[in-house]
Design brief:
Length: 130
């Protein structure tokens, strides 16, 4: 979770002109399968990542609120639940961890690509015109 928030914070600090990402598509690494949403340019991806962050923060806050407000009645209910609760919870936590890992990778890749675009712009500005 820390890595995800760190990566999104860095992306928000670094990407000053998101419009530079329009029409730019993610670079596929050698041997990497094309992504299902491969049609989205980095600008669309940036917008998605920005929209997801508050949902993740709100979800985390609501989980913390629920944990702090649990009562003895809730504890009694949980004790009556069947034994596979731990297994189901583990499955969902693993799924959430994978989603956060994927979001972190996408955020870092977008930030790297944005930096490359800025470097290309700076290089072209430094070259004298003929």
């Amino acid at each position: 979770m820390e890595q995800y928030f760190s990566a999104t914070q860095r992306m928000e600090q670094e990407v000053m002109f998101p419009s530079l990402l329009r029409g730019v598509f993610p670079q596929q690494q050698p041997g990497e399968a094309p992504e299902a949403d491969g049609h989205a340019d980095l600008y669309e991806r940036y917008q998605q990542l920005k929209a997801i962050k508050p949902m993740v923060e709100k979800g985390l806050a609501s989980v913390n609120d629920q944990n702090s407000s649990s009562s003895d009645a809730d504890t009694a209910e949980v004790e009556g639940v069947d034994g596979n609760l731990e297994e189901r919870l583990s499955h969902h936590v693993n799924g959430l961890q994978q989603v956060l890992t994927d979001l972190t990778k996408n955020t870092k890749a977008l930030t790297r690509r944005y930096s490359q675009i800025l470097e290309e712009i700076n290089l072209s500005d430094d070259q004298p015109s003929s």
